[in-house]
Amino acid sequence: STIQKQRQELQLLIAELKDRDKELNDMVAVHQRQLLAWEDDRQKVLTLAERCNLLNNELNKRNEIIKSLTKRLKFLESQQNDSKTTFENTQQKFKELSQKVTDATVHCQALEEKNQSLHCSVLELSAKTGQLQAREQELLTMLKLKDEAILETTDHITEFTSKFKKLESALRAAKMEEFSLNKEKQDLKLRLKELILETNKLKDDLCEKMKENSKQQEEITHLKQENGCLRNELALIVEKAKRKDQLLQFAKSKQARTDTELSSLRQV
């Protein structure tokens, strides 16, 4: 009976040992799976670390791009301010030239009026000269008819001759003045044409400056939009990096738990 009892106890111990062996085998299988999972997690962590380095490099590159774009934006803003200053100077110069053209036009009109009055004076002097010539012919006829009144007629002829010479000299002076006025008028017309050409050239320069200014404003707007997109993309990359850091922390905590369980299993 004692042997029977010992056999039963041995059978119970063997069954219990088998159960323990099965449990150990299960624990070894679980441990193997945990080791594989840990290796997989380690590979994932290494991959994430490499990707994080790549993202950091890309972030540095994007920061450099943003810095260069900011510098270019500042340069374009300064260039725009210079263009505005040039535009204002051009407008001021255009106003001055317009005032000069107006003054030249007024002066030209005044000279034309003066020329017209001188022309009328010349016509009057010519009419008077014709009248004096007719009177001279009448006096010559009277001299031929009246020999007695020759002395008196000679005095009259001398007087009228001096007046005629004075009128001729006045006519020559008027013609010279008319010629100088015509020359001055021609010079003023040429100056007016030059001022008009310079005004048109300034208008063309003004249009080109305005076009260039509009192009620079469009480029600045485009750069601002691109800068905003890059900032948004940078924020997304930073958020992704934060999430990856969180995943890495989760993986590290999981690895720590796995190491703790492994050490406890090894102790068992």
UniProtKB/TrEMBL annotation:
Coiled-coil segments: 3-34, 59-114, 157-233
Species of the source: Pygoscelis papua (Gentoo penguin)
Keyword annotations: Coiled coil
Protein name: CCD62 protein
SUPFAM superfamilies given in the database record: Tropomyosin (SSF57997)
